[in-house]
Design goal:
The structure is a single chain. The protein is α+β, with helices and mostly antiparallel strands and about 600 residues long. It is built from 18 helices and 22 strands. It has five domains: about 110 residues, PAS domain (Beta-Lactamase), CATH 3.30.450.20; about 110 residues, 2-Layer Sandwich (Beta-Lactamase); about 120 residues, Beta-Lactamase (2-Layer Sandwich), CATH 3.30.450; about 70 residues, Helix Hairpins, CATH 1.10.287; about 180 residues, 2-Layer Sandwich (Heat Shock Protein 90). Strand 1 and strand 2 form a beta hairpin. The chain is elongated, with a radius of gyration of 41 Å. It starts with a helix and ends in a 6-residue tail after the last helix.
C-alpha cells in the first residue's frame, strides 16, 4: 500500500486522510487518521483536536446533509466534489473526495471565498449578507440584521420569507433565485430597507463553475446619483441639465441632486446631501408643502405636477415641479425623484393673455349695450303703431333673449378672467343669509313653475347673521338654480336646503334632473369643461359657469361638492365659514331693497339660455 503521508505533507492544500466504517445501512463513521500542516491553519485547530476525531464532529454541517452521506455510501472509483457552507469557517468549503478503497478516503479542502475578500468586506463595516444556493441565509453583518428588523435573532438557515414576510420576502427571494439561476457573476439592484435606499451589489460564489452561494453587499447611494443612473452619458446629461433634479428617500432626506440645483440655490453639495428641507436655509420656506407632496407621491405611487414659489436670493421665482415615485428593483417605493423648471416667464405670458381676454371681453360688452339701447327704441316705436305687432314682437324677443345670453357669456368670461388674474375683490358684509337666499329662491320659483318644475325652500333656522359677499352669493345661487331648471325633467323638483352648523353654514341645491355621468364629476368645476349628454345639445353652455361658481365660493373660504346619479338627479353642497364683522360692515338695508329691484333683470340674464 502506498504511504500517503509523505505525499500529504508536501501538498500545498489542506488534506484529510479518513477511515470509513459502516455501522448500519444508513449510518457510518469517518475517523480522521492523518492531516497535513495546511489543514491545521485552514481549520484553525491543533493536531490533538483533529487526529482520531470524527469528521462529522469537526464539520457538523455535512452530517445532516443526506445528499452528502448518500454520495459517500454509494461512491465508486470516480472522485466527487461537494460544496457546503461551514459556519465555523464563515465560508463555503469545497471538498474533493478521492476513494482509495472501501475503508480509506482522502478529502482535499478548499475555500470558495478568498479570505482576504471576506476580511475586506467586514473591515470596511459594509452591510452584507451571505446566502447558499438554496437561498438560505448563512451569514450577515449585524447592521444588515438591524435593517431587516431582526437584530436579536440568529438568521442562519432562514429565508427572506422569515425575515420580511410573504409579500416583500417573495420579491427578495425570487430576485436572488433568478440571479443564481442566471449564473451571472455580478448584478446590482436598488432596494429600500427600513426606509433607507441602498445599492445592492450581488456577487456569485462559484465552485467548479457552479453557483453555490451569493454575497450581497449594500452601499448607501447618498451623493451617488451616477451609481443609480449607471454613470456615463446619463449621469453627464443629469448634471448638465438646466432643470433641477433631486432624489430624496421616503423620509424627505436628500440623497443626491444635480449641479444645476446646487448652482441656482448657491449651496454646496455637503449642505444638501443627508439633510431635509427644514435644515437647508434656502429651502426651509417650502418644507411643509414639500412634505405634503412627497407623501402624496409615496402613498399613491403616482406622479404629481404642481407649481411652487421659491425665494432664491431675495427673488421670488415660480417653479413647475414634477414628482414621481422612485421604485427599487422589487417594486417598493424607495423615495421621490423631483424635477423643477423655472416657469416665472410663463406666468408673465399667462398674465398678459388673461389681460388680453379681459380687454376683449369689455370690447364685446360695448356693442351689446348698443343692441339693448336699440331694442328700447324699437319697443318705444312699436307702441306708436305697427301693423304686424305680433310678428314684430317675436323678433324683438329673439334679439333680447340672445343678447342676454351673449351678455351672460361675456360677464362670466370677464369675471372668470378677473379671478384668474387676481383682480376680483371679495366684499363681505354682515347680513341675514337665510332671508337673502330665500328671496332669491322665491324669485326663481315662479320662473321654475313656468317650466313645470316645483321649487321647495327649507331651512333649520329663520335667521343667521354672518359676513358674506351679497353679489357673489347671488351669482352662485342663480347659476346653480339655472342649471337645476335647465337640466331638469318635466314635472321635476328643485330643493334649496339651508343648515346652520355653528361654525359653518351649509347650502344644498338638489334637483331631479338628468344627472351627471360619474366619470365626469371630477371635471365639472374645471374652466371651459362641458359635460355632454345625449339628452341635451352638446353645445349648450360655455363651460365657465360652474368653474366661476367654485372660484366665487373659494374666495369666501368656502367649499363646494357635488353628488350625482345619471337619470336620478344632482346635488350641489356649499359650505361657508361663519364669520361676523364689525358693525361698520353691516349691509345697508336701503341699498339692499333698491338692489333687489334689479334681481329680476339679473335673473333674466342668468336664465337667458333656458327656453320656455
Amino acid at each position: 500500500m502506498v504511504d500517503y503521508r509523505e505525499v500529504f505533507r508536501k501538498m500545498p492544500m489542506p488534506v484529510l486522510f479518513v477511515k470509513y466504517k459502516l455501522i448500519s445501512n444508513e449510518q457510518f463513521k469517518m475517523k480522521i487518521e492523518f492531516i497535513n500542516e495546511e489543514t491545521l491553519s485552514f481549520l484553525n485547530k491543533t493536531s490533538e483536536e483533529l487526529i482520531n476525531k470524527e469528521f462529522f464532529d469537526i464539520l457538523p454541517e455535512f452530517k445532516d446533509d443526506k445528499n452528502f452521506t448518500y454520495k459517500i455510501q454509494n461512491m465508486d472509483s470516480d472522485n466527487i466534489i461537494y460544496t457546503k457552507y461551514v459556519r465555523s469557517l464563515n465560508n463555503f468549503i469545497k471538498i474533493t473526495i478521492q476513494k482509495i478503497n472501501d475503508e480509506n478516503f482522502i478529502f482535499y479542502l478548499e475555500c470558495c471565498i478568498e479570505k482576504r475578500v471576506l476580511d475586506n468586506i467586514k473591515k470596511k463595516g459594509n452591510v452584507f449578507f451571505v446566502k447558499d444556493k438554496d437561498n438560505k441565509y448563512m451569514d450577515s453583518s449585524y447592521s444588515y440584521k438591524e435593517l431587516s428588523g431582526n437584530a436579536n435573532i440568529d438568521i442562519y438557515g432562514l429565508t427572506d420569507f422569515d425575515l420580511y414576510g410573504a409579500e416583500i420576502g417573495s420579491k427578495y427571494f425570487e430576485a436572488t433565485k433568478e440571479f443564481i439561476d442566471s449564473k451571472q457573476t455580478y448584478t446590482k439592484e436598488n432596494c429600500n430597507l427600513n426606509n433607507n435606499v441602498y445599492l445592492l451589489n450581488k456577487y456569485s460564489i462559484l465552485s467548479d463553475d457552479e453557483v453555490v452561494g451569493v454575497i450581497g453587499v449594500l452601499e448607501t447611494i447618498e451623493g451617488k446619483l451616477e451609481r443609480i443612473s449607471d454613470g456615463g452619458v446619463i449621469a453627464e446629461i443629469l448634471n448638465n441639465s438646466s432643470e433641477h433634479i433631486v432624489f430624496k428617500d421616503v423620509n424627505g432626506i436628500y440623497l443626491d441632486c444635480n449641479d444645476s440645483f446646487l448652482k441656482d440655490l448657491n449651496v454646496k453639495r455637503e449642505d444638501i446631501i443627508g439633510k431635509a428641507n427644514c435644515n437647508v436655509k434656502a429651502l426651509s420656506s417650502i418644507n411643509d408643502s414639500s412634505i405634503k407632496t412627497d407623501l402624496a407621491v409615496i402613498n399613491e405611487k403616482k406622479r404629481i405636477i404642481y407649481t411652487q414659489e421659491i425665494n432664491i436670493d431675495e427673488q421670488v421665482k415660480e417653479f413647475e415641479i414634477i414628482k414621481e415615485p422612485f421604485l427599487d428593483s422589487y417594486g417598493n417605493v424607495a423615495g421621490v425623484i423631483a424635477t423643477g423648471r423655472d416657469v416665472s416667464h410663463r406666468r408673465e405670458i399667462e398674465k398678459l393673455q388673461q389681460e388680453f381676454f379681459a380687454n376683449i371681453s369689455h370690447e364685446l360688452r360695448t356693442p351689446l349695450n348698443l343692441i339693448f339701447s336699440s331694442l328700447q327704441i324699437i319697443k318705444f316705436i312699436k307702441k306708436e303703431s305697427c301693423e304686424k305687432a305680433r310678428e314684430f314682437n317675436k323678433y324683438i324677443n329673439i334679439i333680447e333673449q340672445n343678447s342676454k345670453r351673449l351678455l351672460k357669456l361675456v360677464n362670466n368670461l370677464i369675471d372668470s378672467t378677473k379671478m384668474k388674474c387676481g383682480y376680483y375683490k371679495y366684499n363681505p358684509k354682515n347680513g341675514n343669509v337665510v332671508s337673502f337666499i330665500e328671496d332669491i329662491s322665491m324669485s326663481v320659483a315662479e320662473f321654475a313653475k313656468q317650466n313645470n318644475i316645483d321649487l321647495i325652500f327649507d331651512t333649520n333656522v329663520e335667521e343667521k347673521i354672518m359676513a358674506f359677499d351679497f353679489e357673489k352669493l347671488e351669482r352662485i345661487m342663480l347659476n346653480l338654480l339655472s342649471n337645476s331648471i335647465k337640466y331638469n325633467k318635466a314635472n321635476g323638483k328643485i330643493e334649496v336646503l339651508l343648515n346652520d352648523c355653528g361654525d359653518s353654514f351649509n347650502i344644498a341645491v338638489r334637483d331631479t334632473g338628468i344627472g351627471i355621468p360619474s366619470d365626469k364629476l371630477e371635471y365639472i368645476f374645471e374652466r371651459f369643461r362641458q359635460v355632454e349628454n345625449r339628452l341635451r345639445k352638446s353645445n349648450e353652455g360655455s363651460g365657465i359657469g360652474l368653474s366661476l361658481v367654485k372660484d366665487l365660493i373659494e374666495i369666501q373660504d368656502g367649499i363646494i361638492e357635488v353628488k350625482s346619479e345619471l337619470g336620478i338627479g344632482s346635488e350641489f353642497k356649499i359650505k361657508l365659514p361663519v364669520k361676523v364683522l364689525s358693525e361698520e360692515h353691516d349691509f345697508n338695508k336701503e341699498y339692499f331693497d333698491n338692489d333687489s329691484n334689479d334681481l329680476v333683470k339679473r335673473m333674466n340674464i342668468e336664465f337667458s339660455d333656458i327656453y320656455l
